[in-house]
Amino acid sequence: xGVLDRRQVARLNQQLATRHETLLVEVRAMLSESGHAAYxxxxxxxxxxxxxxxxxxLADIGAAQIHRHxxxxxxxxxxxxxxxxxxxxxxxxxxxxIAYERLTAHPTAQRCILxxxxxxxxxxxxxxxxx
Length: 131
Hints:
Elements: H1 6-34, H2 37-44, H3 49-85, H4 100-105, H5 113-122
Helix pairs in contact: 1-3, 2-3
């Protein structure tokens, strides 16, 4: 499994399990709170298009937060699957070891620091149109 020993993998698995549970609780709470209740409350009192825009923006912000949490849940689940497969701590690009310190700070890391740096430089402008 590379540089990770069983104790390190167990600690990372615990970290991942804890984060998974926290995210599930947060997403469920956000979904039950939202139920578009905030939007409906504001929209009910809408008197002009400015108020309507604010209501729409608040609904969009809530949806974006939920989306971010769901994406992180997917990342955690993918890391848990890599742990089960014995590939947690192996870079998906160059197949070198990912430092335990990096995994402790970011247990869902898929790339070593060098490959992650290259990726960030390559895709830093992704999604920004140029003329």
